[in-house]
Amino acid sequence: MKKGIPVSPGVSIGTAYCISEIFVRPEKTHLEEDAVGEELARFESAKEQTIRDLKALESKVYAQVGPSEAAVFAMHQSILCDNAFTKKVSGWIVDEKLTVQAALHRFLEEYSVLFSKTKDEYLQERFADIRDVVSRLSASLTDVKNEIDRGLEGPLIVVADELLPSQVVLLGDVEVKGIVTQAGGPTSHAAIIARSKGIPAVSGVPGILRQIKTGDTIMVDGREGVIRYNLDPESIAAYRKLEREFFDFKDQLAENRDEPTITADGLELELLANINSTTDAESAVAMGGNGVGLYRTEYLYLTHPNVPDEEEQYENYRRVIQSAPNNQVTIRTLDIGGDKTVPYLGHNHQESNPFMGWRSIRLSFEHPELFNTQIRAILRAAADFEFGKVRMLFPMVTTVDEMRRVRSMVRRAMKQLVSLGKPFANVPIGMMLEVPAAAIMMDTLLEGCDFVSVGSNDLVQYLMAADRDNPKVSHLCQPLSPPVLRVLKNVIRICNQNNTPITVCGEMAGQPKAFVLLLGMGLKKFSMSPAFIPTIKELAKVISRAEAAQILQNALKLKTTSQVQRYMAGQLQRLAPKFTILDTA
User: Fold this and answer.
1) Looking at 76, 189, 347, 367, which residue is catalytic?
2) Annotated catalytic, 449?
3) What is the C-alpha to C-alpha distance for residues 27 and 24, in angstroms, rounded to an integer?
4) In this model, does residue 519 exceed pLDDT 50?
5) Bridge pairing between strands 329-332 and 291-296
6) I need a surface site. Which of 13, 304, 421, 551 has the fewest CB within 10 A?
7) Are 534 and 287 in contact (CB under 8 A)?
8) Catalytic site residue 189?
9) For the domain 33-142, what is the CATH superfamily, name and number?
């Protein structure tokens, strides 16, 4: 048994599929004599393909972002073309019968030792370039789908260091029933992906890739944060029974998809979906959502081979709007930085404190043409739909000046579209509340906002000064902590007093315990992973606004997070005992 952080509730059992980065030593390291020639050919073929990819990326980044950002890809090509690099890797394949992956791993180890001895920042950045190149080369050698097709029987439990969007894309249509990661916490990529698909997940399990191998049978309990492996037949049968009960209960709840969301005292609520793709938008329809409260456009950039141009973005946004419930979508502009990076925006090198650095709206302001392209694409995509159905949301707005600058850029994009004769729509403009400074100045910031969306994932980590992806401080990143509840109560009160629509679109909106407290604060719009919509819809039926307000009042008297969690667990057990299985501990 291994204990981690519960991030997506439920029980699942299946076959482990381990996604190991190049930096984790490959399981097969040596070749038979007659395989050396084929392995050299694999190395050369992968190198040529990677160089072609880098050339295409350099060209597109040069055109859409700028020459300085494109230059890094020219340098990466030069590393691949360097004779010393080729001779080293080829020599190990021929002389020591190493596989390409093992040779690349050794190459990185040697350079890691070499560069660790220098304090020169420039040289350290060059090592970051080498790691990027070797990772790209390694990825071109790996075909995840083919590996799975060669004998792994689903359903699969994905085991990874951290599950990135690009890795999810590689999995394609493979049946994934659970996720386990070494890194991350309740709001990491892996957690968000798992919840959006409604599958159990546990994060923050250090060393699991050393103890689990592909093909092992593994059980994931996403409510208690436990995984088990090396199971005996009786345990396997018991966990399969728990798994069936979990998914059967979820299927029963999903039958309410066509019903409105109404509280016990008759208040109608809006349950919206957080999505990353058109497929997620379709899931929101299947789960009975009222619309899309947050479309994370960065996933289009993160999974794109280079830079999506205006036409690609326009077509993507139109498809998402068409697929969404009631064609209602709030589109968030590019939220890159922190734990989500793309090299063509200068993030090939690490910032010392990326979550509080050059990210989100700050990065967009640094690249006005790239930002302007996205704004135009959103305005154009909204043209075919009723006014107000499509809204534009800007992340990490901190000051009034930033909100004014956003509106100025939107006006500029509109003028350009007029001059080009392209149809577009004027859309409501909102800010994402993630920074405590913005929460303090909420009444002033509302002057420039048509609506507000609370990004509770980042707001919690900034309030608590705790990295949400660091398991060592995950106990601090809790949405039910007293300071978080007090800040949210005040923000919701100010927005309601000013008749400004407000939505909580962080992951806490879909957690049953948190939902009750948010309802008590006066919130009427909730945006969550599509899989949680049926649960919250059913929970709303058994509680009134007055009861939720009383529960909130009691919770705000408590002094610690653990006290709030225990109190709310008791309230949830009283209100809807069956739902405890669908909430993380």
Assistant:
1) 189
2) no
3) 9
4) yes
5) parallel
6) 421
7) yes
8) yes
9) PtsI, HPr-binding domain (1.10.274.10)
